[in-house]
Amino acid sequence: MFRNERELLIMDKVCGIVNEVLLRLSEMVKPGVSTLFLDKKAYEFCREYNAEPAFLGYSNYPATLCISINDEVVHGIPREDKVLKEGDIVSLDFGALKDGFYGDAAITLGVGKINYASQRLIETTKDCLKEAIKHCRVGNKLGMISSTIQKIAEKEGYSVIRDYVGHGIGTKLHEPPPVPNYGNEEEGPFLEEGMVLAIEPMVCEGGYEVEVDEDGWTVRTKDGKNSAHFECCVAITKEGPKILGSNII
Ligand code: MF3
Ligand code: CO
Q1: Is the C or the N end of the chain the one with fewer CB within 10 Å?
Q2: C-alpha span between 126 and 52 (Å, rounded)
């Protein structure tokens, strides 16, 4: 659960690859593009960097990316007949494995021109992550991260997902501790040097209740309202929070 400097360097590299792939994909997010096309590109890009896609085959997940559109919260399975259209908001979630360590990140983007409500949802979710990262300091409780995310989202009139949480990350994609997007600042373990957390606010315009599609993966809001998602990996160091890879938020 704790990474030394050498291990953090490897994680910085794999997270850099993850972020680079997401940036390259974000240039391809346009009306008319199928989510399966983006998935194929993600696989190609990942292999270019000699990394392995982390989600493909994980608990039998069938794709490289999770692509979640509008009311889909997370774990949307890419499909040929799922085509992006103007005004959609789309979350691209990608993980990779290289030299024994995992990286995991997500961004939410507008497709073409999006309305103000969608822009505000995306910006607030990004803000939740940015502010939460500032609290990634030795000696803080993990609950500081959770409560920061919840407070910012709820202050804007949004809700935060309860059923899915962020996580520790390292030699496994999901490691302890869980990193909820809600809770009290006094809760959870103390943050310690060498911890790496995948922090991933999932913020909804309406209620936080979700249901899973018949495909067994796609998580969507029960009320059909939009949801946004950002994720990055942060190391707790003596010098303060260190975003691994490049900063894409
Ligand atoms: N980024 C997500 C997570 O951290 C996606 C993993 S789900 C998978 O949990 F099964 F597709 F891998
Ligand atoms: Co994750």
Answers
A1: N
A2: 27
* Phi, psi values for residue 53, rounded to 5°: -65, 135
CA 106 to ligand 1: nearest atom: 1
Residue 22, ligand 1, Cβ within 6 A: no
Ligand 1 atom at minimal distance to the Cα of residue 104: 1
From the CA of 10, how far away is ligand 1's center (Å)?
20
Ligand 1 atom nearest to CA at 63: 11
Predicted model pTM: 0.97
Residue-wise pLDDT tens digits, 46-62: 999 999 999 999 999 99
How does pLDDT run across 54-92, given as a tens digit for each residue? 999 999 999 999 999 999 999 999 999 999 999 999 999
Residue 106 C-alpha to ligand 2 middle, in angstroms? Answer: 8
Contacts of 19 (CB under 8 A, 6+ apart): 103, 105, 232, 245, 246, 248
Q: Which of 71, 94, 74 is nearest to 226 (CA)?
A: 71
Take residue 198 and report the two structure tokens written for it. 């995948």
Collapsing DSSP to helix, strand or coil, 91 comes out as: strand
**Ligand 1 within 6 A of 215 CB?**
no
Find where tokens 């310690």 sit: 192
Query: Ligand 1 mean position to 135 CA, how many Å?
Result: 24
Bond into 177 cis (ω within 30): yes
- Are the beta carbons of 232 and 248 closer than 8 angstroms? yes
CA distance 208 to 229: 13
